[in-house]
Amino acid sequence: MSKFAKTHEPPYYAVIFTSQRTDIDKGYEKMANRMVDLASQEKGFLGIESARDSELGITISYWDSMDAIKNWKENSAHKIAQEKGKTEWYKNYSVRICKVERDYSF
Amino acid sequence: MSKFAKTHEPPYYAVIFTSQRTDIDKGYEKMANRMVDLASQEKGFLGIESARDSELGITISYWDSMDAIKNWKENSAHKIAQEKGKTEWYKNYSVRICKVERDYSF
Prior knowledge:
Chain A is an alpha+beta fold.
């Protein structure tokens, strides 16, 4: 599978999630994979791109509408993961909700 | 220095650059560092976040306005780097120009 998200023509929406991990594992990878699976089943999900190195992780999910983003934020399994993220997995993170206005690729 | 970009209250703009590298080095890291230096001197530059693993690299630069993004795209040293990126450093990449509408952090 390509690691690039295949999104349609703009406009669409992006959630930029930038994070630094703690040293605590406790099922992190399993949860992360499950969240990708669950998100991709949500209505309006377009794709996801992710990279992590020793200093920072960036995950960007792409969505058809703001409503789709809101629904995903309220997904019950996702809410549990968000809580556990704060108490165990992440030292700190930031979330940015964006409207993608233009795109191109090479 | 924190690896997180310190951006002001939305709205502001983001350029999401997702890429896969070739095996060609030829001054890549030096160029990448120089581009960060040059970008940060541009009017309207707010910050940058970057992560790369074996599969994908993601760099997000944040800007005060669309005009600032246009100016940076036209920066002459940046244009040379863009050309060299296509012929040497990148197998493929995508660029997305976004308006950040909301953000929060933990």
